[in-house]
Each structure stands twice: as structure tokens, then as C-alpha cells.
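Posting this for the archive.
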Amino acid sequence: MSWIKEVEMEEAEAAGNEELALIYRELIEKRGKIANILKVHSLNQKAMQGHLDLYMSIMFARTGITRPESEMIATVVSQANSCEYCKNHHGESLNRYWKDGDKVQALTNGYKNMGLSEREISILDYAVKLTSSPGQMVEDDVEKLRNIGLDDQAILNVALITSYFCFVNRVAMGLGVEYSEEELKGYKV
């Protein structure tokens, strides 16, 4: 699954690691299964819980960014970072909303000419610039988001989602986190 040791749920239970076993049980209950990107944190349960808390608070909270927009950001940022694990996971999540695999594929090939709204293109432009050239960000980048109707809470969430995926892409690539077609599917929305 990755290049480092991972503790499976059965191992955690057998070793009496209730903290990790509880996190695993809650993941299965709420999400349907345990993603490999979380399992790679199994040697540091506090980091796993912090990672999970951050993920849930930015991807599922009502903050002026829709769930499909959040998944678009995740997919485009992961593409920009060449992270196959996250690009495929969040492309699969986006497809739950779009129900059009060709459209998801087009997003990863270049979102500007695929008929997205001005709002969506502006959000993705911001995310790609923050990913690829963070030192070149200026106040005008935020103003462009305000001009398409995003309030400061929504703008914050775009920045948080973008930054989160830059972080998690590096965890996945740095530790060799793998995915399979089976692992991509079956999560609860």
C-alpha cells in the first residue's frame, strides 16, 4: 500500500491500540472504508486524526463552495502536482456529481476550454496559481474571486482546499501511497 509500515485494523485491535482502532471504526462507519492516504498515518494516530478533522472541515462544511467545486479543486491541484492517487480519488468523487467520466477526464487535461462557468474557471485559476506559483500570489488574486461573488469565507475555503491538497499530494507521493480501482470506489458521500 505504501513504502512504510501501516497498521491494519486487526493489528490495532490485537495490540490493544484503542485510539487507532476507534479511528478506523469511525472511518468505516462514516465513510464506508479506510482510504490508503489515511492508513499511511497509522503510526501517528494524532496526525491521522488531525488530518481527518482538517479534511472533513474543509471538504464537507458549508462555506460557500459547493461539494463539486471542492472536488474540482482537489482534482486540478492534484493534477498540477502530478499526484495520481489524489487525482484519481477526487476525480472519482467528482464523477459522483457529474456522472460523466469524459468530463472529469477533460478537467484533468485542461479545464479552461471545457465549458465551465466563469466562477468555476476563476476558482480553478486561483487554485492552480497558488499550487504552482505561491510566491506570486497578490491581493488582486483574491479580488478576482470577490468579483465573481465569493465572500471571504468561501475564498478562505478555496485557499484551504488548495493548500490541503498540496500537503496531502506530497504525503501520498513521498510515501508511495498506492490506489487500485477497488480502493477508489465504495466511499460514502
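The two ends are 23 Å apart (CA to CA). The chain has a mean pLDDT of 94.
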